[in-house]
Amino acid sequence: MPDGDQKKPSRIQTRNRLVILDAALNVFSQHGYRGATLDQIASEAGLSKPNILYYFQGKEDIHLTLLSQLMETWLDPLVELDPEGDPQTEILDYVQRKLDMALDLPRESRLFAGEILQGAPRMGPHLESDLKPLFDQKCEVIAGWSAAGKIAPINPQHLIFSIWATTQHYADFAAQVTVLLGADTDPYQTASEHLRLMFSAVLRIKN
Amino acid sequence: MPDGDQKKPSRIQTRNRLVILDAALNVFSQHGYRGATLDQIASEAGLSKPNILYYFQGKEDIHLTLLSQLMETWLDPLVELDPEGDPQTEILDYVQRKLDMALDLPRESRLFAGEILQGAPRMGPHLESDLKPLFDQKCEVIAGWSAAGKIAPINPQHLIFSIWATTQHYADFAAQVTVLLGADTDPYQTASEHLRLMFSAVLRIKN
DNA sequence: GTAAAATTTTACCATTTGGTAAATACACGA
DNA sequence: TCGTGTATTTACCAAATGGTAAAATTTTAC
Predict the structure, then answer these.
(1) CA–CA separation, A96 vs A80, rounded Å?
(2) The complex's ipTM?
(3) Which domain holds residue B22?
C-alpha cells in the first residue's frame, strides 16, 4: 500500500508513478501549479483520479516530487564546470550544455520557470540549500579566472544569470520564438552559434 | 451601463476599471490565467465579484484587456530603436530601456512571461500581428548595420532574443535572483553595467 | 428635490475542484 | 487454486469557481 510507502515498490507501482509524473509534468508545465487540475493529470495519465491519489498524497506532493527530481538534473551542467579546465572552454561548454538541456527538456525548463515566476513558493528552501551554495562556489571559480587574467574582467553572478536567461529562453519562450522565426525554422543550430559567438566575445581579453 | 459600453465613461467607471485592472495584474502575474480567481481579484480591488463583472464581461475579458494594453508599452522600447542613429549607441540604449522597463514594471513582465510560457493561448494573434512585423523590421535594420561593417557580424534575431532574455530575467526570475544575490542587494547597478559590458563586447568589431 | 440612470449588493446557481470511503477487481506466491 | 495483500473503481463530499438575476442604493441631470 503505497502513498508514504517505505518498502521496495512493485513493478506496477514503479510504472504508474512514472506515468503519473510524466503526465503531471505536461500539465504543471503548461498551466502552473494552481492552474493544473488532478482530473487533467489523471486523464493524461490514463488513470482515475482516486487511483492517482493512491500513489501520491495529493496535488502538492506530485508537484514537489517533480521539482525535487528536477533540481538534480538542472544543476548538473553547472556541477560539471571544472575549476581545473581551460576557462574559455569550460564556460562555453557550460553554455552548450545548458542550451542542449533547454531544447531536450523544455517541459522541465517551463516547470522550473513557472515556479520561479510565481515567487518560488514551493521551492524557496531548495534554492537556498541546493542552488545557492553551488552558485556561490562556481562564482568564485569564475572570479578567480577573471582575477588571474585568464578571461576578461566580468561579474560572475550576472554572467551566470545571462547564461541561464539566454539558454532557457528557447524553452520558456518557445511560443514566441516559433512565431518570430517561423514555425518551420529549427532554432538550434543558429542559437548555438549565436550564443557561442556572444559569450566568446564577452570572455575575450581586450588588447 | 458599461460592459460593452460605447459612450464616454464616467469618473467612477474610469477609476474602477483602473482599480480592477491593477488588482488583476497582481493576481494574474502571480498565478497565471487559470490559477487566478475572480474572488481574489475582487478582494484585491476592494470590490465585490458581481461588481467586477459589471465592468468586465468576464475573467478572460480582464486578462485580454491587460495583455492588449501591455503590448503597446512592451513594444515601445524597440519602436524607438532608430535606424538613423549610431548602431552601438542605439542597441546599448535599447538594452538599457528594456532593463529599466523590467525593473520598473516587473508585474507586467511576469504577466507577459506567464502567457508565453503557457503557449500564448490568448496572445498568439497579437504576436503575429503586432510583434512580428516590428521584429522583422528591426532585424533588417540590425542586419544592415552588420553588413555595412558598423557592428560585428551577428544574427539579429538571436541578438534580440538575448537582449529580451537577459533583461527580463531580472523581473521574471526575481525570486531566484534575490536568493542568489542576497535579499539586501539591489541588482540594478551591477546588472546594468554587466549588460552594457556584455553587449558592447558582442557588437565590437574584431581587429 | 426628484426622477432616471448608473452603480453596488444580496442571494443565488451549476460546474469544477481536491479529496475520501468503501466496495470491487486483480496479481501472485503458497 | 486459493487466500492475501495490491490495485482500481464507484460513489460520494465540501469547498471553491465563474457567472447571473434582481433588488437596493447611489449618482447625476434637470
Answers:
(1) 12
(2) 0.89
(3) 11-57
